[in-house]
Design brief:
Blueprint: E1 12-18, H1 24-34, E2 42-48, E3 53-59, H2 62-65, H3 68-73, E4 78-84, E5 99-103, E6 106-116, H4 119-128, H5 139-148, H6 154-164, E7 167-174, E8 179-183, E9 192-196, E10 199-203, H7 206-212, E11 215-219, E12 225-229, E13 232-236, E14 246-247, H8 249-254, E15 260-261, E16 264-265, H9 266-280, E17 287-290, H10 296-306, E18 314-316, H11 332-339, E19 340-342, H12 344-347, E20 351-356, H13 363-374, E21 379-384, H14 406-409, H15 412-419, E22 423-426, H16 429-434, E23 445-446, H17 448-451
Parallel strand pairs: 14-23, 17-20, 20-21, 21-22
Antiparallel strand pairs: 1-4, 1-10, 2-3, 2-4, 5-6, 6-7, 7-8, 8-12, 9-10, 9-11, 12-13, 15-16, 18-19
Helix pairs in contact: 1-7, 5-6, 9-10
Length: 470
């Protein structure tokens, strides 16, 4: 387990572009760079010129996987890209995406963000009917289903596939003549549409559109299939569920602050979370600091609402990624300081309120509180801009084992004592939903990790399952 694992992790970022006359591989490269926060294990780009699909993928960050020479060889008018953090399937190059295969009507590439909950049943059924799998990720099941149903148009095959699969998914599918975007009926994972001249773009977040100079058109709606070709953009009949269930953690942590999701500017939402924290937990402190960078917007919101000055109390080393070499037990304290170092002259003699977006296991939070106190802070209070995480997630967040969730095992005061803080407050679920106003009622979000209200059927635990509740 990583020393930096006291954060939820999301599975993937996806990107697709239909851009005749453009350098689509390079634009996809920049788009994936903007989505790097969504996955740091592997990256891949598939490109078509209408006569076959070429693919390059490997383990590592985007600039490590793609060189000038590689991009120069990926020529065409359409491209699909993917960055991955594994939740289903081991961290191996064979599980990297996009997945490319031959099917009845030519070649197909697929990039997937999300997690299927009926993966075991589907894989078993496909294998029993002769399907062969090369990887262990659930995306290959989707590819097999699309291929199985592809006697007619690719759009019909995807619609039939959607009837079979359950769980969370945003997909970008590319054939030799079409680029297709799909969002699951609950809209758990984000997917948006951009435009740049005559070119169309699909991306997990709007920040990728900004990076390449494209304009955000709209979000793909839950259950919608959008088809982009030389005929323009066409929307297929939606297969929406009775309720929308966008993952609330997109706004709390996953999405980049400069993204817009379902009409909400992420940075503004996080600032309002901080303001709500200040209303719920007024405390006499001298300064407000954040755990950078994910807690910064909420910390500034707390400062604005309370009038307590915001200071930079922790300096982040941005050259440390999730692939950082694991230290031995004796070096873990040093390793935490390597990523987050306290600024002693800011902290010395001060009562400090530290704001973070979440506490999953509590280990890193405890080390940070200890660092602040050893740097001279008289008191350390901690505010968290999300409610306690007490239930596993089955839809693409790597918090699938309940016993690893500290808030499911301890009371709030128990967590406070464990991390060594003088005070601890989690944002209430009611307060969290208030920040969205009347435009987005509670039923619009998936909040299952807080309240156990799972909008989509979840897998039953068994001895082989990774989804063990206990």
């Amino acid at each position: 387990m990583s020393i930096f694992s006291d954060k939820p992790k999301e599975e993937c970022g996806i990107f697709g572009i239909y851009g005749p006359g453009l350098d689509v591989s390079r634009l996809t490269y920049y788009g994936l760079y903007a989505l790097q926060h969504r996955g740091q294990e592997s990256a891949g780009i598939a490109v078509t010129d209408g006569h076959g699909i070429r693919l390059h993928k490997n383990m590592g960050l985007v600039p490590e996987v793609f060189s000038e020479g590689v991009l120069a060889r990926l020529t065409g008018h359409m491209a699909v890209g993917h960055v991955r953090y594994s939740t289903t399937g081991s961290s191996l190059v064979i599980n990297a995406q996009p997945l490319v295969c031959y099917y009845a009507n030519g070649m197909l590439a697929l990039a997937h963000n999300g997690n299927l909950t009926n993966i075991g049943k589907l894989r078993g059924s496909l294998a029993a009917h002769g399907s062969v799998f090369q990887s262990t990720n659930d995306s290959e099941v989707i590819v097999n289903l699309i291929a199985r149903y592809s006697q007619n148009k690719i759009e019909d095959a995807i619609l039939k596939c959607m009837l079979d699969i359950k769980g969370s998914y945003s997909l970008v599918v590319m054939t030799e003549d079409k680029l297709i975007g799909v969002r699951d009926p609950y809209g758990v994972r984000p997917l948006c549409i951009g435009k740049m001249g005559d070119a169309y773009i699909l991306a997990s977040e709007s920040c990728a559109l900004d990076t390449i100079g494209a304009e955000l058109v709209r979000d793909v709606e839950p259950g919608e299939i959008v088809v982009i070709s030389d005929k323009g953009l066409n929307s297929i009949k939606k297969m929406a569920a009775k309720r929308q269930a966008t993952c609330i953690f997109e706004f709390i942590y996953f999405a980049r602050p400069d993204s817009v999701i379902d009409g909400f500017q992420v940075n503004q939402v996080r600032r309002e979370m901080g303001r709500q924290l200040a209303r719920e937990y007024p405390v006499e402190v001298d300064i407000v600091i954040s755990v950078p960078d994910s807690g910064t917007a909420a910390a500034r919101g707390y400062s604005e609402e309370s009038g307590i000055p915001f200071e930079e109390g922790l300096m982040k080393n941005r050259y440390i990624g999730r692939t950082f070499i694991q230290p031995n037990q004796e070096m873990r304290e040093l390793a935490v300081r390597l990523k987050l170092n306290p600024i002693k002259n800011v902290l010395r003699g001060k009562r400090v309120l530290m704001v973070d977006d979440s506490i999953v296991r509590g280990t890193t939070s405890g080390k940070m509180v200890s660092m602040l106190k050893s740097s001279g802070a008289e008191e350390v209070h901690m505010c968290v801009s999300s409610p306690p995480i007490i239930h596993p997630c089955y839809y693409g967040i790597d918090i699938s084992v309940r016993k690893e969730l500290i808030a499911s095992e301890m009371s709030v005061d128990g967590v406070r004592k464990f991390i060594g803080a003088d005070g601890l407050h989690y944002l209430s679920q009611e307060g969290l939903l208030k920040v969205f106003g009347k435009k987005m009622p509670q039923c619009t979000f998936c909040t299952a990790c807080f309240d156990g209200d799972y909008p989509i059927e979840i897998p039953m635990p068994d001895k082989q399952s990774k989804f063990l509740l206990e």
